[in-house]
From TrEMBL:
It is found in: Membrane. One of its GO terms (cellular component) is membrane. This is Cystine/glutamate transporter. PANTHER family: AMINO ACID TRANSPORTER, CYSTINE_GLUTAMATE TRANSPORTER. The lineage of its organism: Eukaryota, Metazoa, Chordata, Craniata, Vertebrata.
């Protein structure tokens, strides 16, 4: 009992009896940083790139606006489900933790495997490519920017974000708040002139908005993928539950406030786009916000690429802040090498988990095509989200008395889960190459799980070599296990 009390005192005081700091992740994220974290991660490159993908696969202006609104509603439903999951299970780790607690270790490991192998590299790649494109294209306009230069600038953006998240949790949090303010200004700068032009009667691009001749139902799931990609990020706060101050209050509040604001902003931004540009203009543009600025903000057009680039950095920063916590928790549960459950002894950041993702993102940048990357990553991402909310419903049924500080109406949870499974299933038909590849890579984790986690059938010599390398990396990176529990 005295030992437990001493441990609590050490954890609360952040110091050991000898005066040195206790190694653990601290609760430093209040309500404003939490809102900035969600809003700043959701509003990244998506709203400046995805309108083309949504329009291309929906076929008309009216249907594309409907898709944007429905994606906002669907994302808000999902965010409310995750608010319940985040207050029910107090561990960090997001999808991984919820699958582990509700459906078991194999689905949880597959989520971890897919995140590391291709989901996070693909997501970070298309955000960083958007960053590189908006930095480089204005310099070479009206000519096409060199692909190699776009890739190099993209890598520089990723490197900056990785460095910030390795250096300090506080610095990463403050960076997120600052970039969120900048990207909010960017959205306002697009919305106001667009709505003003609409109010002045500039409605010609909305004529025949629901032309059914161009609608292809088989491509509609891909339109939703592009829209949902732009809303992606509402679940990132659940990755860092153990670092949120008063999570029972701040997680639901931050999620609700953020998602309502994002949905309204996204619909208004797309209305502004279509007020100034025709559907053909939008489809021909690789940088929609830049094309919009050249037409509606002639005096400020040079400012838009800077604001959009900052917006992309904010989304990258949010991703590299949240996702390493999933790898961190997975390693803590024994589903990932133990090195990745360690924290830097002075900076208190999950350094190995952050660094692990960096080379994977750089490699994935070689694919280059943003829209293929979206489809490639989205299949598994949304499959596991649907499985997590299905697990939530199963957990409710099996353990009705389990304490749930925030409880979403079951109708919302059922609608969200069914729609997600429907979109995921139909996308296999719409884009079998990318979604099939995503499915195959996900399932490749099954033999890995049974060989390395379930039964540990690795040769003794290989395990010994791996342990030696891990120890050397631990010394080099100056990292150690958490010394007090944070959940």
């Amino acid at each position: 009992m005295e030992g437990a009390k001493a441990e609590c005192v050490a954890g609360d005081g952040k110091e050991k009896p000898d005066g040195t700091e206790v190694v653990h992740l601290r609760r430093t994220i209040g309500l404003l940083p939490a809102i900035s974290f969600i809003f700043g991660t959701v509003v990244g490159s998506g709203i400046f790139i995805a309108p083309k993908g949504v329009l291309m696969n929906s076929g008309s202006v009216g249907v594309s606006l409907l898709v944007w609104a429905l994606c906002g509603v669907l994302s808000t439903f999902g965010a409310l489900c995750y608010a319940e999951l985040g207050t029910t299970f107090k561990k960090s780790g997001g999808h991984y933790t919820y699958l582990l607690e509700t459906l078991g270790p194999l689905p949880a490991f597959l989520r971890l495997w897919a995140e590391f192998i291709f989901i996070r590299p693909a997501v970070a790649s298309y955000v960083s490519l958007a960053f590189g494109r908006y930095v480089v294209e204005p310099i070479f306009a009206p000519c096409t920017a060199p692909t190699v230069l776009v890739a190099l600038v993209s890598i520089l953006g990723v490197t900056f974000v990785v460095a910030v998240n390795c250096w300090s949790v506080t610095l990463a949090s403050r960076t997120q708040v600052t970039l969120t303010i900048i990207k909010t200004f960017a959205l306002i700068l697009i919305i106001i002139p667009g709505i003003r032009a609409l109010a002045q009667g500039q409605t010609e691009h909305f004529q025949g908005a629901f032309d059914s001749d161009t609608l292809d139902l088989t491509k509609l799931p891909l339109a939703f993928y592009s829209g949902l990609y732009a809303y992606g990020g509402w679940f990132y706060l659940n990755y860092v539950t153990e670092e949120v101050i008063n999570p029972n209050r701040n997680i639901p509040l931050a999620i609700i406030l953020s998602m309502v604001t994002v949905t309204v902003c996204y619909v208004l931004v797309n209305v502004a786009y279509y007020t100034v540009m025709s559907a053909d203009d939008l489809l021909m543009s690789d940088a929609v916000a830049l094309t919009f600025a050249n037409r509606a903000l002639k005096g400020l057009s040079s400012l838009i690429p800077i604001l959009v680039s900052a917006s992309c950095l904010g989304a990258l920063n949010g991703g590299f802040f949240g996702v390493p916590r999933m790898l961190f928790v997975g390693a803590r549960e024994g589903h990932w090498p133990a090195l990745f459950s360690m924290i830097h002894i002075r900076r208190q950041t999950p350094l190995p988990a952050v660094l692990l993702l960096y080379p994977m993102v750089v490699v994935m940048l070689g694919r280059g095509d943003i829209y293929q990357l979206i489809n490639f990553a989205s299949f598994s991402r949304w499959l596991f989200i649907a499985m997590a909310t299905l697990g939530m419903l199963i957990h409710r049924y099996r353990f009705p008395e389990y304490p749930r500080p925030f409880k979403v109406p079951w109708v919302i949870a059922v609608i969200f889960t069914v729609v997600c499974f429907f979109i995921v299933g139909l996308s296999l038909y719409s884009d079998p190459w990318n979604t099939g590849g995503s499915c195959a890579l996900t399932l490749s984790g099954v033999p890995v799980y049974y060989l390395t986690v379930k039964r540990q059938h690795l040769p003794h010599r290989l395990r010994r070599a791996f342990n030696y390398i891990s120890r050397q990396l631990q010394i080099l990176l100056e990292v150690a296990q958490q010394e007090v529990p944070t959940y």
